[in-house]
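EI: anyone free to look at a 312-residue chain?
SC: sure, send it
EI:
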Amino acid sequence: MNPWSLFWRQGHSTTFGPYYKQGYEGAVADWWKSVLADLPPEVSVMEVGCGNCSLLPDMVKSGLKGKYIGVDLAAVKPSNVASEGLADSGIELVLHSETPAEELPEPDASIDLFASVFGIEYSNLDKSFSEAYRVLKSGGSLRALLHHNQSVVTGMSKRAYDEFNAEDFRAVINALTAISLVRDKVASPSELKSDAEAEKNRQILNVFAEKYLSDTNPATANATMFELMTQALGFFKVLGASQAQRQDFIGGLANEHLASHERFRQMMAVAFDSEGIDQLKSKLQALGFAEVRGNEVMTDENILAWELCAEK
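SC: here you go
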């Protein structure tokens, strides 16, 4: 499964997951509200790399009418936050799930605003920018926040990626699987204590729990493996469940952490330096866009993203 589909099916409202539970906040929200403030009262907005309709909540709150069109290559659906107030907002929602940005299923010259927050850079930009130009009306705008190679987001992604210990991860999953196999052979979970194989693997888990859960200093702790071990120990709460349920627990744990590792790799891979942004500006100008700009967006004293703006 697409690693982002696994992320969005958890119901997250933004790419920041549990950090922004009620939609974008801070610098991202300020940026987006300023974009919305420049729009006419009735407007058609397309968000590419929309996730669970990340930019829709503030559009609903803005009082604007018209249409929001979400496009994402992952399997997505409106989050609970995105659905709040939508029915009475006067905004029509169109969502193109599992749809590439390089082939937008919308007619020519039909969109007033083409927007993206940490999304379009995952596509083939030669093709997706060409599609943006095609669907935008004359006088329409492109507004995007892109990953910056020196941003706090990229820095956090790198730390999380580097923290992932593949060898320890495999050992944890193997230990859980071994205990589950023994559980299939005994009458009750209490009998696992007297089984040598089950006890050996329980001790393996204890070693990793001590290794990763004992350090709670944010500066030195391994947050990625801390989360893995916290979730892995939850397996002992489902020892009384069926074999299928235990397998689902282990498989889900493994898949989510592997997918998370891949998401962090991708976030670093699509981050741009200043030369890369200049190249993107040239691409947009070659397509016919005007007033092309690329600026750094700050959060407090740290870099958050690149802002890319253009007019058709």
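EI: The chain has a mean pLDDT of 96.
SC: 👍
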